[in-house]
Amino acid sequence: MWVFYLISLPLTLGMVVVTLRYFAGPAVPRYVVATVGYAWFCSLSIIILVPADIWTTLTGSAKGGIGFFWSWSYWSTFILTWAVVPTIQGYEDAGDFTVKERLKTSIHMNLLFYSIVGAIGLIGLILLLIMHRAWDGGIVGFAMACSNTFGLVTGAFLLGFGLSEIPRNIWKNADWSHRQKVLSHRVAKMAVKLDGAHQEYSNAIVVAQATSNQMSKRDLLRPYMDIIDNMVAQMLREDPSFKPSGGRFGENDMDYDTDDKSMATLRRQLRRAHEEYYRCKSEYMTCVMEALKLEDTIKNYECRDANGWKYVSSFRESRSGTLGSLLDTIEFIWRCILRKQLQKAFAVVLGCMSAAILLAEATLLPSVDLSLFSILIKAVGKQEVLVQVAAFVPLMYMCICTYYSLFKIGMLMFYSLTPRQTSSVSLLMICSMVARYAPPISYNFLNLIRLGGNAKTTFEKRMGNIDDAVPFFGRGFNRIYPLIMVVYTLLVASNFFGRVIDFFGSWKRFKLQREEENIDGLDPSGMIILQKERSWIEQGYKVGEQVIPLARNFNGVSTDIESQNVPLVRFHLH
Predict the structure, then answer these.
(1) CB 194 within 8 A of CB 551
(2) Which residue windows are transmembrane per the record (predicted)?
């Protein structure tokens, strides 16, 4: 067991550190990074503990260490999710100028949240007293079961969506033609979105500067205005290439100098506009680079015989010498042949794993053990490493599917997850969601592993029986909600909901659009932008530096690329 820990825990810690470094924006404070990192580590620790818990239950080994780690991981995530993270999130989102005022704003913002949580807890306690039920885990166990019931139900639907979409998207994206069409449309949308964010950022700067100019040096609010002035100056110093343009005044944009709260609002809006602009710019740059590299890959494959099966990149100088020629050949084989086939094979493997999970969930109600994972764990018997690997791989896949759906839905409404430009507020909200769903996912997976007899893992004993927390479903709640999830997943895979929403045209605003929907050929605006970006890169500019004026001219573009009225990007391989 300790061998598994010695390998998995350092890998988990390393993964958390690398992920944070990759996504966290430059302005994220260290205490936010530390809080998010600790929450992620505790959440992943729960997932790592499940295989070890299964092993100790199968072998009847001592569980003292497992119990301690369960308590530490679970209660750490619980306290972070429901108390610490919301407070820090409100503090980071506040625009006030002192620590005390920012804390007051945060607490005021979270009062409704805390009131709802307290009301739910009170209702649960009243139900427990009314039913006079014998509860093996005590009130603490009942509270844990109630708090995780919401995660189990909503997590089941998130899991179902991910089980269908992840293999499907990987398979689709392996098709170069399909991916090129998707990227051309995404580049066009990202360029327009970047232009909008640029205008909002310019507006925020213009309003801040105008407010500063009309405020006298003896004004009582001048110290606050000086802080905002320094903030604007620092932003412009950090990115000399940014040139405010299109700034305009709204109806109430000159009313920020009335009191300290209005100044706090101005500061908050300026910070948000700054974060949104650089988030959009990062997404745009990532998308453009992927599209340009895909064009390179397609061109290299088409010219493979002429180039001697060597990869020629438009983003670097040609390699020289025998070793350089060998590396070019290896890169060609990987980018143009192997990667595409491996993506399809990986999609098939994940599709089979999704089917195995759905089969296991569907057979919980009839009490027939058709869970591939249960059979596999029993088959490897007393071999510790194999048992833990057989449990860890499907559990991690279930987590990835759930978090994929959670991030996709959340990024449409609540937060963003952008490489090197994710704000403190977004990181904290994501961290709260990750911590909230780790225990329910683990509990769901443990239901798929039938250990035989009355054997229960430490986690099941500590978490309590969910059946008793949901009395109106009776004793079979653990077996009913997975079946509902299976039906939901099959409906998602068959695009049933999309057809229903399309039938009722007025419901389309509620539809979660798939990226490839409404895509008919290459987007002309996107292809023009890619052509211009390649030209600017060859002239020594960075991606995104020149696109803002160009993006404002695409409203009237309706030319069909496939009719060849707009030239495709062409470049010469040397």
Answers:
(1) yes
(2) 6-24, 31-52, 72-91, 111-132, 138-163, 345-365, 385-406, 427-446, 480-501
In 84-182, at which residue ranges do the beta strands (DSSP E only) sit?
none
Amino acid identity of residue 1, one-letter, is M
Instruction: Give me the phi and psi of 24, to 5 degrees please.
Output: -65, 135
- State the Cα–Cα distance between residues 169 and 496, nearest whole angstrom: 18
β partners of residue 24: 422
Distance between CA 24 and CA 34 in Å, rounded?
Answer: 11
* CA–CA gap between residue 478 and residue 473 (Å, rounded): 9
Cα distance between residue 470 and residue 447, in whole Å: 17
Give phi and psi for 426, each to the nearest 5. Answer: -65, -45
Helix (H, G, I), strand (E, B) or coil at 110: helix
d(CA 55, CA 378): 11
The pair of structure tokens assigned to 265 is: 């609002």
Separation CA 551–CA 264 (nearest Å): 32
The rounded distance, in Å, linking the Cα atoms of 35 and 13 is 14
Polymer length in residues for the chain:
574
Question: At residue 167, what is the residue type?
Answer: P
Distance (Å, whole) CA 247 – CA 532: 25
User: Which residues, 6 or more positions from 112, have their beta carbon under 8 angstroms from its beta carbon?
Assistant: none
Q: What is the mean pLDDT of residues 475-499?
A: 77
What average pLDDT score do residues 391-403 get?
92
Structure tokens at 33: 């990074």
Rounded CA separation 384/55 (Å) = 7
23-25-30 Cα angle (round to 5) = 100
pLDDT at 128: 60
Name residue 306's amino acid: A
Task: Determine the Cα–Cα distance for residues 352 and 471; give it in Å rounded to an integer.
Answer: 35
Cβ neighbours of residue 66 closer than 8 Å, sequence gap 6 or more: 49, 52, 53, 56, 458
* 422 DSSP β-pair partners: 24
Two tokens at 106? 């945060």
Backbone φ, ψ for residue 422 (5° rounding): -80, 130
Q: What is the mean pLDDT of residues 434-455?
A: 83
Under DSSP, is residue 307 helix (H, G, I), strand (E, B) or coil? Answer: coil
Residues 101-110: contacts with CB within 8 Å, 24+ apart?
101/260, 101/264, 105/264, 110/86
pLDDT of residue 69: 84
- Residue appearing with tokens 């001219």: 553
Task: Kindly indicate the confidence band of residue 571, based on its pLDDT and cuts at 50, 70 and 90.
Answer: very low
**Among 438, 560, 469, 402, residue whose Cα is nearest residue 73:** 438
| Predicted pLDDT at 347 | 97
Q: How far is CA 516 from the centre of its chain?
A: 19
- CA dist., res. 494 & res. 503, Å (int): 15
Place of tokens 């896949």: 397
Number of Cβ within a 10 Å radius of residue 389: 15
pLDDT band (50, 70, 90) for residue 495: confident
